[in-house]
Amino acid sequence: MPDNPSSLDAVLVALETEPLSAALLELNTFAEASGQVELCQWAIAELHGYSGNETYPSYRNLSLQYFDGGGQAIPSLSEQYGSWPVLNGVQQLELQIKHGLTIKPPPEVLDFLSQACDRQVFGGHVNPETLQQLLAAIRTEAINRLGVISR
To answer: Per residue in 26-78, pLDDT tens?
Structure first.
């Protein structure tokens, strides 16, 4: 990546050819240099993750497979309560892509889920394919946001 601010074309090329985390860093550099505050904030949030009290995009709601302490899947919960916000940053998601991402919901959510299925729920898992889809959605959103700027 060059030391000088990225051009729009360089960012688009990065989004098509580089790992998403590297492309988002380049996008952030471009957004800062061109005074695109909202784009810069979005790129940083995607790169490093969203806090629980921030507004996050709907594509961050992913299907989850719940499991008990023994690692057994609980399909009935996934059918009813399978959507969960995955707020982790792209840098972390790229590290988890091979095996998927295990999520440990807050204790009150685990208690509710455990009561709903009469079984102790340990957590949830997002499979690698779903993580790939999320990364693709973020990449597409970045390209779309750049398209709005270039018009």
So the answer is: 999 999 999 999 999 999 999 999 987 889 999 999 999 999 988 899 988 88
| Cα-trace Rg, the chain | 18
Cβ-based burial of 91 (10 A; exposed 0-12, middle 13-18, buried ≥19):
middle
Closest CA to 23 of 3, 45, 6: 6
User: What pTM was computed for the model?
Assistant: 0.88
Q: Where does residue 44 rank: exposed (0-12), middle (13-18), buried (19+ CB within 10 A)? A: middle
Alpha carbons within 13 angstroms on the beta-carbon side of residue 38 total 5
1 neighbors 22 (Cβ within 8 angstroms) = yes
Residue with tokens 């790939």: 132
